[in-house]
Amino acid sequence: MNQKRSFTEESIYLLVWLLLAISPLLVSWLQVVADIDSAINWAAIFKAWQQMIPFLIVFVLHNWLLAPLLVYRRRPYLYFTFTGLIFVLFVCYECANRPKHPHLHGGPRHEQFEGHSQRPYGAPPREGDKRQHARPHRNEHGAAREATPELDGKVWKPIRPVTQPPPVIGQHDFISAIILLLILALNLSVKYYFRHRAEVQRFESLEKERIRQQLAYLRYQVNPHFFMNTLNTIHALVDVDPERAQSSIVVLSRLMRYALYEGDHDFVAVQREVDFLRNYVELMRIRCTDNVDIRFDVNLSQPTALMPPLLLASFIENAFKYGISSQRPSFIHSSIDTTEERLTFNCSNSNHQHSLDIDEEREGGVGLRNVRQRLELLFPNDYRLDIDEGRDVYSLLLQIPLRQVADLDKFKFVH
Description:
It is a single chain. By secondary structure, this protein is an alpha+beta fold. The protein folds into three domains: 2-106 and 170-198, no CATH class; 112-133 and 147-163, no CATH class; 207-411, Heat Shock Protein 90, CATH 3.30.565.10. Helices cover 53% and strands 14% of the residues. The protein is built from ten helices and 13 strands. It has helices at 2-34, 42-71, 76-96, 102-105, 171-240, 242-261, 270-285, 313-322, 366-378, 408-411, and strands at 108-110, 137-138, 144-145, 150-151, 154-155, 161-163, 268-269, 292-299, 306-307, 330-338, 342-350, 384-389, 393-401. Strand 10 and strand 11 form a beta hairpin. The longest helix has 70 residues, at 171-240. It is rod-shaped, with a radius of gyration of 46 Å. The model is unreliable at 102-117, 130-134 and 355-364 (pLDDT under 50).
């Protein structure tokens, strides 16, 4: 999983940097398309690539060395110390290699003398300037002698350009620093996203393993409890009717085969579960008298649909255990119906003992409690279990979703 996550993450970085490297070529090509007479400016393209190199170097150092300190090793002090140092070095490099554009850092300015409006040397006077230009004087030989112009009684001197020194951090350097911070922030965001996704997947895997172990524990509790009651039934027939006891042992072997080889699966076909329940009902019918009305109706429209094994056995087992009386007429009516997506199980029996509350702590109530726990684990908020315990009738309705073979992988727990 870690290798898959790393490959996906590195692929994202590689794709982004390839797009950034291609962007100068794309811009130059669009300019050529707009102006037929122009050509691709390779000098500008190489200059753009050269400016990307410092960003790429810092990104590589941050992605493989610095970011793991914060994201995975949880050492923020080391991360911020080294990241701050690299950031300062980057800004110093940008300041030392800034483009030669004076207008970005402050260009030349002209001196402005007292009493003068600012005007470059040699420029014609502007309207409103009260300037009196002195005529040139001539020497004794008649040659013109340069005279110093005067302006309102003040001497006009040539204005010399004075260059302002550039600031320590210019506009270009500031923009580069902001871009670098955005790159580092995006790098951290991507790493935090993949770490969160990995933690979610790991939690889901652990949760599936926990549920699998809990379900296995519940199944192992149900099986001995289930067969203990069955053996008690056969034991009662050994002295009364040995032949029926022998046939009961054959049916019991079928039940045990299903429990051993199918009960450990996460899901089984509905038809297999129905066959198991039918064998169990026939086995229990052996010890019942004609005074007991037993019905087991099945209507399967989706016999190949999947359901958890041994889920309904505890309900029928308790119906036989507490719904039969040797002194009064009794009945056990159960049915299974399936639609395309859900299974409905109905079971009603005569209530001769008012001790069937599913949450009641009593001896022999292990099976029903385990069924409810299994339902909560298998179908959280997607099942219906209604139990109505009347004075004479105990009825139960269970509805669960069915799974299809094509969707089995989405619901199968970790083995």
